[in-house]
Amino acid sequence: MSALKIKKGSNKHSAYNLRPNFSDVEERHTLAVLVDNEAGVLARVIGLFSGRGYNIDSLTVAEIDHEGHMSRITIVTTGTPQVIEQIKAQLGRIVPVHGVNDLTVEGRAVERELALMKVICTGDKRVEALRLADIFRTNVVDSTLDSFTFEITGTSEKIDAFADLMRPLGLSDLARTGIAALPRGS
């Protein structure tokens, strides 16, 4: 008989409990991926997500170094911590990827999005749309006798809130850029 007694049902210190403690709660993460600016790179990154059934909530791509031929892909995705770790590891293995930064866990980041919204309205609704646009600090980039096109920049939550207020006033069209993000500080 062994002198070591383990409480029934407890495997906290068992050699068979090799899985790290990952939460089943889904989290939103913003990933910044530095890649070579060449044909097919974006398709490979997107293929990684679609091939494994991962969802992309927002995707922004732009060249950041013309001479060095480097682009930055900003991806917002949702998943359990285990899924996020898999995504980062798999992204890091793609050959033209130079770095993967998880801005969500590396500290505070600045995130902004741009949206254009067309609101078709007249009379009191037109006055209310302009009043709300002023509160949200939007710009009117186009105006006709029966419509406005507003430009709004801010967090995704700010854009969602403005769109929710514009819907009953006549929101007819919406275009969003996706999130651009950088870490804060040095």
TrEMBL record:
Cellular-component GO terms for this entry: cytosol
A single MF term (Gene Ontology): acetolactate synthase activity
Top-level EC class as recorded in UniProt: transferase
Domain ACT intervals: 30-105
Keyword Amino-acid biosynthesis belongs to the record: yes
CDD domains: ACT_AHAS (cd04878)
Pfam families in the record: ACT_AHAS_ss (PF22629), ALS_ss_C (PF10369)
Catalytic activity: 2 pyruvate + H(+) = (2S)-2-acetolactate + CO2
EC number: 2.2.1.6
InterPro entries assigned to the protein according to its UniProt record, in alphabetical order: Acetalactate_synth_ssu (IPR004789), Acetolactate_synth/TF_NikR_C (IPR027271), Acetolactate_synth_ssu_C (IPR019455), ACT-like_dom_sf (IPR045865), ACT_dom (IPR002912), AHAS_ACT (IPR039557), AHAS_small-like_ACT (IPR054480)
SUPFAM superfamilies named among the record's database cross-references: ACT-like
UniProt keyword terms in alphabetical order: Amino-acid biosynthesis, Branched-chain amino acid biosynthesis, Transferase
Any single biological process term in GO: isoleucine biosynthetic process
Known pathway: Amino-acid biosynthesis; L-isoleucine biosynthesis; L-isoleucine from 2-oxobutanoate: step 1/4; Amino-acid biosynthesis; L-valine biosynthesis; L-valine from pyruvate: step 1/4
UniProt subunit comment: Dimer of large and small chains.
Biological role stated in the UniProt entry: Catalyzes the conversion of 2 pyruvate molecules into acetolactate in the first common step of the biosynthetic pathway of the branched-amino acids such as leucine, isoleucine, and valine.
Family note: Belongs to the acetolactate synthase small subunit family.
Name of the protein described by the UniProt record: Acetolactate synthase small subunit
Organism: Roseovarius nanhaiticus
Source species taxonomy: Bacteria, Pseudomonadati, Pseudomonadota, Alphaproteobacteria, Rhodobacterales
